Amino acid sequence: MDLDDCIKNRRSVRDYLDKQVEKEKIDAILSAGAMAPSARDTQQWRFTVVEDRERIRMLSVEAKRNLGLIGKGLQLAEALKAREDTIFYNAPLLIIVSAKKDDKWAGIDCGLAAQNMMLKAYGLGLGSCYIGLANSLNKDSKILKDIGIPDDYAIISPLIFGYPVKWPEPKTRKPQVLKWIK
Ligand SMILES: Cc1cc2nc3c(=O)[nH]c(=O)nc-3n(C[C@H](O)[C@H](O)[C@H](O)COP(=O)(O)O)c2cc1C
User: Chain centroid to CA 156: how far?
Assistant: First the structure.
């Protein structure tokens, strides 16, 4: 697919069909992430792929709990029983991009990898959305351990992917140039 088309028409998707993403497409998304530029070419990003819908739903509940959205009226046990996944929008695929906590460029590097991945996904006919709210999972080291993220790593870019129920309308955005010096 044409790069201009991907850049212009990619939008965040928050409603997904109940359909798994094919393995070849997941591999292609990961490869696109790995091709991003990184400070000193250190490629510090690490990818955690979660296809297990139940696990994604549990992570959604945990993220909400860490954000303080659960506790007042809703008890954790009730929330775990509830079917809704408000953080990850019932997406069939979650890819968490993490990096070493002490890497000062990690936020930028993982963000660049994330954009490559979301553009690649669009080119493959998949919707995506960056889920910054899921960074709240960093508050609970046990959860990170459970999904295989080492102690010295932190979640930087949680990303969801899947086939959209419908595509959001493309938007027009104008560059805001502070000054053009000739
Ligand atoms: C760092 C970052 C964090 C974001 N976190 C969330 C989030 O937690 N939940 C969500 O629904 N969208 C999230 N988004 C998506 C933005 O809301 C979205 O990119 C923005 O509204 C522009 O819309 P577009 O992606 O359709 O162009 C996030 C995007 C970025 C870049």
Answer: 9
Angle between helices 106-123 and 23-34 (to 10 degrees): 140
Structure token pair of residue 30: 């990961």
What are 92-131's pLDDT values in tens digits? 999 999 999 999 999 999 999 999 999 999 999 999 999 9
In a domain, 182, yes or no: no
The pTM for the full model equals 0.94
Ligand 1 neighbour 160 (Cβ under 6 A): no
Residue 15: other Cβ atoms inside 10 A? 13
* Residue 20 covered by a domain: yes
Atom of ligand 1 nearest to the CA of 114: 31
Counting atoms of ligand 1 from 1, which one is nearest the CA of 13? Answer: 26
CATH for 102: 3.40.109.10
